[in-house]
Design a protein that fits this description.
72 residues; mainly alpha; 2 helices; 0% strand
Length: 72
């Protein structure tokens, strides 16, 4: 029972230290951050597309293998 009450307190304690005052961001800072996020997202999407293509090819090969095993 102590773990249940300890966990929310630990989360509250750790998250309270993460709050810091920051200088306001300029429009160019925001634009630069958004461009960096966009580039990272495109890279991630390209990686995911390659993975999906590889999985599709693997699935097609598995289907062919199933068809060949049923014939024999």
């Amino acid at each position: 029972m102590k773990h249940i009450t300890f966990l929310p307190l630990a989360i509250l304690f750790l998250s309270a230290g993460a709050v810091k005052s920051q200088a306001p961001l300029t429009d160019s800072d925001v634009a630069t951050s958004l461009q960096a996020l966009e580039t990272a997202n495109k890279t991630l999407i390209d990686s995911q597309k390659k993975t999906l293509d590889a999985l599709d090819a693997l699935d097609q090969n598995a289907q062919q293998l199933k068809a060949f095993t049923k014939r024999s």
